[in-house]
Structures are given as structure tokens and as C-alpha cells.
Amino acid sequence: MTGGDEAVSAIGPETDRLLCDVMLGKAVVYLRLCGFDTAYAGDRGIEDDDPIAAIAERESRRLCTRDVELANRVPSSILLTERELPAQLEELRAAGVVLEVSERPKYCGRCNGELLAVAVDEETPEYAPNPNEIDCWRCRSCEQIFWKGSHYERMADTIESVHKKTNG
Q1: Helices 85-94 and 25-33: crossing angle, nearest 10°?
Q2: pTM (predicted TM-score)
């Protein structure tokens, strides 16, 4: 359900920047996986409605929240009612959010920083695979290394199950 909007139109990573309040912490990582520039109020230590509404306006972000009053205050917000992640993803999709895993990751799942490809001859930490063998990306902000491993596959499978469930 969108706050105030009756028609459902596509909300895509090329056109929309998102902001999730602290009630949607798990959904944030999935939205980033789908290529959305997704700010998270919890990353900024913000829980109160006024600063969240101000960020949405100042940064031109569409707010995603489970807070009815906040959703009613912020134009074009997306109001979710579910508590569990798969159901939240279904609600986001029903609201028009394009949930498709990006072929090339764009945003850090941890901090929303921009991801850059790691060169094949670049050194990576011990926990990361060799970039000569597996494509890796480094966050410009927090320096975390990402690759398409088992965690990525589980998340992609969750997105795929939402597609199957919502497509009948």
C-alpha cells in the first residue's frame, strides 16, 4: 500500500531512491541487492519520525515504513503491514517496487556505499575469494568485499520465491 497513491506504478532502481525506517532493517539489504540506493535510518542512528521525514524530503527518497502515521505524513511513502521479511518483500512488490536481483551489484549491503569491481590482480582479505577466480566488488565507503557466494544465492532465491508467489 502506498501512502496516498492509489495507482501502482513501477518503482525502480533507476528512478527511485529509498529510505527504510528501523522497522525494515532486513528488507534494506534485499533492496540494495536489487540495485536500489537504499538509506537505512538505523545506519544513521535515527528512530524518530521527524528526522526520518526530513531525510526523505531532503534526499528525495521514497520512504518505506510500517508506521501508519509516518507514512501518512510523507508523500509517496510505501506502508507495509507485515513483520516477516518474505511477506514484506511481497508487499513491496505489490506496491510496484521492482524486485530483481542486479546482475552487477551496485550498493553495499552493509552501508549502501558504491561497489566497485576488484581488479583480478588486486589483493583481497583472507575471508574473500581470489578475484582472479571469482568476481568481487569492494565498497568505496566501508571497504567490505562482496562476491556472489552462498549468502547471495540464498537472498536471490528469496527474491525468486516472491516472484513465483506473487505471479500465481
Answers
A1: 60
A2: 0.91
